[in-house]
Give the backbone structure.
Amino acid sequence: MDEPTRVDPWRFAGGFIAKALGAAIPDAPSVADVPFTSVAKPLAECRVALLSTAGLSVRGDTPFDMEFERKNPMRGDSSFRRLSAEIATGDVEANHLHIDTGYIERDLNVALPLDRLHELARAGEIGSVAPTHYSIMGFQGNDSSALVEQSAPAIADAMKSEEVDLALLAPV
């Protein structure tokens, strides 16, 4: 296995946001080890899935718990939702109080770039688009234990069962 890669979680946040969130989440690490595995085969042979942090759900399915988010403004629902590779913008709801969901309502690719992924597959840049993609509520504040201990392993197992080679994070 490769050596862990060091990641600065505030690198792209900008000074003000990094300082504000760093103060609001005092136990957040400034640098964390993340598991990293090199790609084992050519990208043109890989099945790719997306993971969005926008709190996306299919209309009619159980939405993310925004009441919990209202009562706990520094935390979000730690569950996850499955999204079909063929889903359309109008079939999706964005359940998240910490982002402007209007952009997602107009173009799902803002939070889940499925059209771009399908284009890459048609161009032969990637092997195929996974049949299922996933969404979580990215704002977990200072307690991401349920996301890490329950949702993340369930998503990883589902991806393994669909023979996903690469997962791309679509952070919002």
In short: The chain has two domains: 1-38, 39-170. The CA atoms of residues 13 and 62 lie 31 Å apart.
